[in-house]
Amino acid sequence: MEGLRNDGRRWNELRRIHCQLSTSSTNADGSSYIEQGFTKVICNVTGPAEPSNRQRVKQDSATVSCEVYFAAFSGTDRIKRGRNDKKVQELQTAIQKTFDSVILTHLFARSEISISIHILSQDGGTLAACINAATLALIDAGIPMSDYVCACTAGQSTSIFDQEGASPDPWLDVNYLEESDIPSLTVVTVGDSEKIVALSMENKVRIERLEAMIAVGISGCARVRGIMDKEVRRYGKEKLEAEGE
Amino acid sequence: MPPPTPLSPPELSYLFTSLSLSPPIRPDLRAATQFRPIIAECSFLPHCNGSSRICMTEAGECIVGIKAEVEKDTTSKYATVVEREKWIEISVEVAGGGASGPGSGVGVGGISGAGGAAGRDEGDGGAAVWLKEGLLAGGAAGWSILDQLVISKGWHWKLYIDVLLLTPTSHPSPLLLSTAVNMALDSTYMPKLTSPHDVDDIPTFSDDWAISVPLYDPSSFPRPPMSLPVIAIGDNVFLDPSVAEVAAAEVGLVVTITLTDSAGSCDIVGVRGMEVGRGGGKEGERKGINRKLLRKMVTACVTEAGEVIKGLGEATHKQMFRA
């Protein structure tokens, strides 16, 4: 059984992803901008640089730090989130831990790589967009990673077919409406290797559905990787051509 | 404290001398009243009534989002002015990016007389205060932005203007902030009221954005205000000064103006002092400013900047969805 979702997508379709590298004119070493549907995120990366505070120095590897800012105007209602907001802290930790494991930190001992993310507009899949944006900004900054870190969300529709025994398809890349309505999870993989580096889920779902959701999420990640890779290559080519002239 | 510069005293002295020549030579060879190029986008945030993104080479990047909420009018009979001013709320947030930490207490553009009121840890140096001031003053002949916010009897819009400065370490110029706010205001549209004006029931609005109402009607005047930094060295007046030029300047002003007709003439709605460097002299040896020079500086803004504001307005309208 196949139907259309409220924004006209099929179950396995991503929203439009638009990404850009080196967007910022500021002194950041790398920057990126990503739009996934109406979710819009800016990311700046500084480093590897000398750590801003002594406690962050690690003798054998680089420290990855992450700051997430929700713009007050990013949601439907105006909400100001402070630095100590629970959701902000959770996002920061998730992103920091993910990248700490993927960046080749042993190459930059006693230095700090700081990722700062600004969420300008939220429409579901905030964590996924943040991670994708951070990946692009890190690539722009030239920081070595084992592969692209790609994130995507998947949700499990709880439709009427459930009771009749037919299993409904999980939905790929949920938007805000779907996210608030059905259980969903965020899968983060390294490249298209199907290796999951982070998985986050905040709702209840039946255990037999989980497998399918993760599988759909992983396939979404592979597609996100393709889109990001295309943009990175396009940007790299453009940059090289500009330098060649 | 004047904005910090990486220039040494001999470099400052050299810069001071070249800027006091006649004609002056600016480090980037601009004419005295020439502005630097900017990148400006607007109306790109779907959850906002108006939004803008401005990039400047030196001052960096700034994003503004404007949200409007319907609020019940609680204005009492007597304290009208003060209470009405609360209809607009401006907040400036400086991103404390990585190594530098949140704003080190240096005010935005070092504008004097507006310091510290808006909270220490935001480090915006009271930018919200002077931005709002310009906005409320922005209109000649009794015109006020607040009148535009009235929906119907007993109801009004509450305007939240959130400024996001993405440049933690460089020196944010007042021009950056005010340009961004100007463009965001110019692209702000409110849903059209469908309930009658004179009833004090909860107002209802049309959900069709194609017939939404602009906050500042593009065909009418005044336009949203804009604050321009201007400095003087000797008798030379410079618009859009760079950080180094501010450090070498003798006097600095921030002039807030608003466009009053399609030919590009402007009204002054506010003038503030701006902190500058030591202007060739020794530390603490401030020469002050004479009336003639003050007049020259303000006149330079009014005569030269009209075209720039007009251009910005045209760029905004070109980018808007109804183009």
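qc> The longest strand of chain B covers residues 60-72.
qc> done
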